[in-house]
Amino acid sequence: MPEFLIKMLQEQYGENITKKILEGYKHKRKVTFRVNNLKASIEEIEKALNNKNIKYKKVSWYKNAFILEDLIESEVISWDIYEKGKIYLQSLSSMLPPIILGPEENADILDMTAAPGGKTTEMAALSNNKSHITACEMNKIRIEKLKYNVKKQAASCVYIMQKDSRKIDEMFSFDQILLDAPCSGSGTLNVEDKNLNKYFTKRLIEKSSEVQYVLLKKAITILKKGQEMVYSTCSILSKENEEVLLKIMKESKVEIIPIEFEGMEKVPYLPVSLKGTLCVCPNEFYEGFFIAKIRKII
Predict the structure, then answer these.
(1) Backbone φ and ψ of 133, nearest 5°
(2) Before 116, cis peptide (omega within 30)?
(3) Chain centre distance of CA 43
(4) Of 235, 252, 264, nearest to 295 (Cα)?
(5) CA–CA separation, 199 vs 208, rounded Å?
(6) What is the number of other CB atoms lying within 10 angstroms of the CB of residue 199?
(7) pLDDT at 84
(8) What's the pTM value of the predicted model, to 2 decimals?
């Protein structure tokens, strides 16, 4: 592990919680997926798993989420239910932002950094394809993966736009926005990666926070007054989370909406310095993840 990261974690969380985080990094996370209710029912997927004698667990806060006990992803992608888009491999932590946003039917929704499409297609499923989702992605290669997943998941309410969300015209406005911002990935580090010290640097964290600020500033500008958005990262560092939000809150008329959802007490959390937000602790089931719900004040 990079020494500077351990020091940052110790300064933010203290010795004991840092040890817990470092232990969490070491776990090989269980394979998890969600049922795509646009193509299949939970009962159909449970029957398919039972027929294969697959061991699985359910998740208290999301009936569509499944945890596989003893499998790796390469085994799952050969399944018929996967190939037909009836399930979508996705980490539990990344399923949280769409649930917390609560995509509404008939709402104009913006997904600012959409590829590869896990959260985009989850929002389509949560709204039963009755919302109007604009999915932005600036990278040409990544947008092809987004298009593939949107089609495979039958997310017909999604309009894909190749665009740097920082440059979205301010003539547009949205009822709901999901900004799962580019980040350092400090919540998802692989301790077995021998190149970790090469790409995970202080500059990466600095650069990420700079991009996050610009994206969040744009999101607040094009969010309709009185409406809500979700800001999330797969980082557990306040530099990319609370500090970015506090800077925006000083400049814009916004407020933090305390996050509440059924079953949330079952998720492992880290302490946060901004009340109402949450930060998921990495372990064998979850990636480290930060989430905030924001309302633009009228």
Answers:
(1) -105, 125
(2) yes
(3) 26
(4) 252
(5) 13
(6) 10
(7) 98
(8) 0.96
Q: Return the amino acid letter for 140.
A: K
pLDDT of residue 199: 92
DSSP 8-state secondary structure symbol assigned to residue 55: -
Give the residue ranges of DSSP H helices in the chain: 3-13, 15-26, 42-51, 73-76, 80-83, 92-101, 118-126, 140-152, 196-199, 202-222, 242-251
CA–CA separation, 124 vs 71, rounded Å? 27
Tell me what pLDDT residue 1 has: 87
Write the CA distances from 110 to 22, 56, 113, 222, integer angstroms.
35, 33, 9, 10
Residue pair 95/62 in contact by the 8 Å Cβ criterion: yes
Query: 214-236 pLDDT, tens per residue?
Result: 999 999 999 999 999 999 999 99
Task: Please answer whether residues 102 and 261 qualify as being in contact, where contact means their C-beta atoms are separated by less than 8 angstroms.
Answer: no
The one-letter amino acid code at 187 reads: G
Q: Which residue has the tokens 């979205």?
A: 168
Determine the 3-state secondary structure of 144 from DSSP.
Answer: helix
First to last CA, the chain: 45
- Tokens in use for 37? 């209710």
Catalytic positions, written as ranges:
234
Q: d(Cα 6, Cα 262) in Å, to the nearest integer?
A: 33
Q: Using an 8 Å Cβ cutoff, are 100 and 44 in contact? A: no
Query: Residue 192 above 90 pLDDT?
Result: no
For residue 43, is pLDDT > 80? yes
Write down all domains in the chain, each with its CATH number in brackets.
92-296 (3.40.50.150)
Which residues make Cβ contacts (< 8 Å) with residue 9, sequence separation at least 6? 17, 18, 21, 22, 236, 237
